[in-house]
Design a protein that fits this description.
single chain; about 600 residues; alpha/beta; 6-stranded mixed β-sheet; 4-stranded antiparallel β-sheet; about 10% strand; elongated
Length: about 600
């Protein structure tokens, strides 16, 4: 038993998986349109496991092919009763017992080796999907629903794994079975062999008739699953909104309608598969009856002299029909599996990535920025920014104000490198942002978003996310700076209190302060607040404003502001309207000017 446990351990090491992820991404990019070649290329490095698995599969399948021969031999021996009758019977029985008893050993070996290759590749492909999703641009993630991506990472990888199992078990079984069965039959009787060959064009015809319907059905069903997954994710995320507005019934109706549509797609697909199964069974069973009549006719004409051979041919023809049915039965599973590869390829072959190759690594960030005649549009609509110019000195605090959709967040997205300017240039420390390694650049930046993003886990886990080896003293200092001390004192387990999914056990102000603490602990050179206090009450805002004042000391700071009172101490305030800078100056200067900023302040 201990040997079995040792043999079945996968011993998958995370370092090995991470190394192979790039190989999988490369494979999808190179062979994305050659599905069969791509499929086998993914197993590069595991071919030895597959070879050993195939060899053991051959050995474990011997009873299927040898037992009919033994049965035929014994029937013929009974018919002819030679002088060494008992000796030959014993030999046949011994051979049969040996090949039957070896089955558990070889079958286990086959399963162990196949599953080692299969599960290693499954982990690698899913890891490659996760890696690629981390590399894809923010624009890509805004265009493709999260539920769709979740379905690709989970369901499609499972379909790929299922395809692997079919190819290296069912297809291997059918292929070996056909070759050995036909080889034995052609050696026995050429006429029976020709009769057997009739099944091949019939299988090809049935396959051709159903192939397109099966393929289209699999694609439609996958799309319906992705849509359902996406809508479920949205429903869970916005459940507080639907509950607050008494829209539960509307959500139930919408999701039920989507589920019905998915069920209809599944029903259509299943009916097509059912037609395929019934037609193939009827056609091939009719051929089996014809084969029985044909072999009986050959026996009547004296072409078959051993009665055991008739039993052999019937047994083999039953196996042959099983293989033929197996081929047709595999069509839906294989079609679905290769469609899953196409679906994964939509992610893994996407070119919408942040390219870091041959880009200058940022080893130190001063925090000087310059926007030179920058224009940007998200689509064919009006530009989000138009001829935008701004120079930011090291350590300055710059606030952006304006109506919703004016372009404030777009400036931030360009500064972080989430988007590239369509026209003009964005300079960071006098270097074009398009020429620098964004990954290395963002190590010096912290972002406090309007919508606080927290994870399931403790307060400590959320504050120290992405920052290793933080001492208790460092954590304590950060908690003080973020005005979190009073919050931590009231929590049952202090800093180790579990905060629930998305921090739902905390108030908005408490969540925002944890988000600020996470920003502080990174000790950034540049800090970005994207309307970080817009949803808070006055008391919470005052506490968070203290944390912001601490965090912005000696750091270049960008603040997208909704409440204009929170940016009184900014070095400069930039007023944006329809993508253009219409005013720029200190709070007092703009108020004295009584222009666009003054009007915004008056409205509040």
């Amino acid at each position: 038993m201990s040997i079995m446990k040792k043999a079945t351990k996968l011993n998958i090491k995370i370092e090995d998986v991470l190394k192979r992820e790039e190989h999988f991404i490369y494979s999808f990019n190179k062979y994305g349109d050659k599905k069969i070649k791509l499929f086998f290329h993914l197993f590069k490095g595991y071919y030895w496991y597959l070879f050993l698995s195939a060899f053991l599969f051959f050995l474990k399948s011997l009873p299927t092919w040898i037992l009919p021969i033994i049965t035929a031999n014994i029937i013929t021996l009974i018919q002819k009763q030679p002088s060494n009758f008992l000796y030959q019977i014993i030999i046949n029985i011994i051979v049969g017992v040996v090949i039957v008893l070896q089955h558990p050993i070889t079958n286990t070996g086959h399963s162990i080796n196949l599953n080692k290759a299969r599960h290693n590749v499954e982990v690698g492909v899913r890891g490659a999907m996760i890696r690629k999703l981390q590399q894809l641009s923010i624009a890509y993630h805004k265009e493709v629903p999260a539920g769709t991506l979740h379905s690709k990472v989970m369901r499609d990888v499972e379909k790929f794994e299922s395809l692997t199992l079919h190819v290296f078990t069912s297809v291997l079984n059918i292929g070996l079975g056909l070759i050995i069965t036909l080889a034995i039959v052609i050696n026995k009787n050429i006429y029976v062999f020709l009769m057997f060959l009739i099944t091949i064009p019939i299988c090809m015809l049935i396959n051709k008739v159903f192939k397109t319907s099966i393929k289209n059905g699999a694609i439609e069903y996958r799309h319906s699953v992705e849509k359902t997954s996406s809508e479920i994710v949205n429903m869970l995320e916005y459940m507080p909104v639907s509950r607050a507005h008494a829209l539960e019934q509307k959500e139930i109706y919408k999701l039920t309608d989507t589920s019905i549509n998915q069920a209809q797609k599944a029903h259509n697909y299943d009916i097509t598969v059912s037609y395929l199964g019934s037609i193939s069974w009827s056609a091939l069973t009719a051929i089996q009856l014809l084969c029985l009549g044909f072999t009986s006719f050959l026996a009547y004409k004296g072409q078959i002299t051993d009665i055991g051979d008739i039993a052999l041919y019937q047994s083999y023809f039953s196996s042959l029909l099983g293989y033929a049915n197996g081929i047709l039965g595999l069509l839906p599973a294989i079609t679905s599996g290769f469609d899953a590869i196409s679906s994964m390829s939509e992610v893994l072959s996407s070119k919408d990535v942040e390219n870091t190759e041959n880009k200058t690594r940022v080893e130190k960030l001063e925090g000087e920025y310059e926007f030179l005649n920058v224009s940007f549009r998200y689509d064919e609509n009006s530009p989000a920014l138009k001829n935008f110019n701004l120079k930011v000195k090291k350590g300055e605090t710059i606030a952006f104000v304006g109506e919703s959709g004016s372009g404030k967040s777009t400036v931030i997205n360009l500064a972080v490198g989430f988007y590239k300017a369509n026209e003009g240039r964005v300079l960071v420390d006098d270097k074009d942002i398009n020429d620098i390694n964004l990954h290395s650049y963002r190590r010096f930046i912290s972002v406090v978003p309007q919508k606080t993003i927290l994870f399931s886990g403790s307060v400590r886990d959320n504050i120290t996310y992405g920052s290793d080896h933080i001492s208790d003293e460092e954590l304590s200092n950060v908690i003080k700076a973020a005005q979190l001390e009073s919050v931590i004192e009231r929590l049952p387990d202090g800093v180790d209190t579990e905060i629930g999914e998305h921090g739902d056990k905390l108030s908005g102000g408490q969540r925002q302060r944890i988000s600020i603490a996470r920003a502080i602990i990174r000790n950034p050179q540049v800090i970005i607040f994207d309307e970080a206090t817009s949803a808070l009450d006055s008391a919470s805002e005052r506490e968070i404003q203290k944390a912001i004042d601490y965090l912005t000391r000696d750091r270049t700071t960008f603040i997208v502001a909704h409440r204009l009172s929170t940016i009184r101490n900014a070095d400069r305030i930039v007023v944006i309207n329809k993508g253009e800078c219409v005013e720029c100056g200190s709070y007092d200067e703009l108020m004295a000017k009584k222009g666009a900023f003054y009007k915004l302040q008056a409205l509040q």
